[in-house]
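Example 9 (inverse folding). The structure is encoded as follows.
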């Protein structure tokens, strides 16, 4: 009997444990999806990460696990997606270019949405990308994504997918495209 009580006590103590899970994003997992506004080929632009160092942010939690994203890494993923699309359109990305676009991923949030008795529960993720051109704010792009909560990568896929949708919107923002085409 005393062993049974100890087992339940230990199970109760462990149930209260909380863990932190840092989400490592793969900048090559997704690319811009869908059509974007036309870009003038032959131009060049410098794409800058708005974070100078690691900037960890808790984006949500579920079942005792707190999910953490490095906003600098998330911005690097957004920049990589943007660079691939710019290069496809004939725009050169060069750190020394006169045109300077600064990206900053912010307000990343994720939440679990359960659909009982189905296999369709999801982590819904939203985020913003702040865009500055030549040091001045030009656009704030919002996007969200829902990743099916099967397997261990749902939050990661949610953030990467939301980033892809935000970059696609960024390249469809008339002010950003006008700046790139100047």
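The amino acid assigned to each position is listed next.
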């Amino acid at each position: 009997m005393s062993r049974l009580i100890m087992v339940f006590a230990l199970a109760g103590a462990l149930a209260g444990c909380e863990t932190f899970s840092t989400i490592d994003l793969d900048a090559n997992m997704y690319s811009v999806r869908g059509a974007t506004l036309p870009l003038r080929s032959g131009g060049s632009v410098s794409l800058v990460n708005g974070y100078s160092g690691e900037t960890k942010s808790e984006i949500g939690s579920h079942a005792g696990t707190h999910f953490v994203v490095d906003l600098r890494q998330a911005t690097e993923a957004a920049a990589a997606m943007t660079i691939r699309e710019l290069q496809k359109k004939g725009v050169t990305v060069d750190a020394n270019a006169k045109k300077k676009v600064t990206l900053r991923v912010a307000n990343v949030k994720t939440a679990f949405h359960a659909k009982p008795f189905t296999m369709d529960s999801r982590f819904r993720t939203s985020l913003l990308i702040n865009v500055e051109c030549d040091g001045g704010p030009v656009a704030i792009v919002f996007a969200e994504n829902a990743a099916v909560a099967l397997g261990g990568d749902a939050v990661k896929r949610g953030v990467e997918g939301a980033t892809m949708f935000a970059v696609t919107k960024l390249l469809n923002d008339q002010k950003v495209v006008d700046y790139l085409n100047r």
